[in-house]
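TICKET: design request
STATUS: open
ATTACHED STRUCTURE:
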């Protein structure tokens, strides 16, 4: 599998749609995009995914959005995108890589832990306070964010 990771500074509607699959708040996406490193994931010149990273503390960087297009899921692209993020963080001198996901995001929780991330906390009612509409995922109302961390040293 050969994926191309291409940093971008402008979002196309296709990028934006992909980001909204992982984060349904247009306002939040616009807010963090403007202060992020955003990388599109291409396979044979087709957009298959996107990842957004933000430096949060001097030695820490967070994946604030990672999305693989529905037509390209379960092919290992998410795992390869996470590997890219880990390598990027290491090459840029970060020692901690953070990510948060919904408590009802079972496949994402599995993938992140499979890649070595460890649960470090829960933001109770994160999705209740930051989103205007109720989010239903896997038949459950999404309320809490699970915070995970990978130590890179």
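STATUS: resolved
RESOLUTION: sequence designed for all positions
ATTACHED SEQUENCE:
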């Amino acid at each position: 599998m050969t994926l191309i990771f291409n940093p971008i500074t402008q979002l196309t509607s296709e990028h934006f749609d992909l980001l909204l699959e992982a984060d349904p708040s247009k306002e939040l996406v616009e807010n963090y995009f403007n202060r992020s490193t955003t990388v599109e994931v291409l396979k044979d010149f087709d957009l298959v995914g996107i990842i957004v990273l933000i430096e949060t503390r001097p030695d820490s960087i967070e994946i604030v959005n990672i999305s693989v297009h529905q037509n390209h899921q379960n092919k290992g692209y998410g795992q390869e995108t996470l590997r890219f993020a880990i390598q990027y963080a290491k090459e840029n001198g970060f020692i901690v890589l953070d990510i948060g996901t919904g408590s009802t995001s079972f496949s994402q929780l599995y993938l992140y832990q499979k890649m070595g991330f460890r649960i470090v906390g829960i933001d109770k009612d994160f999705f209740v306070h930051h989103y205007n509409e109720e989010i239903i995922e896997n038949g459950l109302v999404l309320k809490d964010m699970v915070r995970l961390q990978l130590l890179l040293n």
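CLOSING REMARK: The helical segments are 13-22, 26-33, 77-91, 106-114, 126-130. The longest strand covers residues 46-57.
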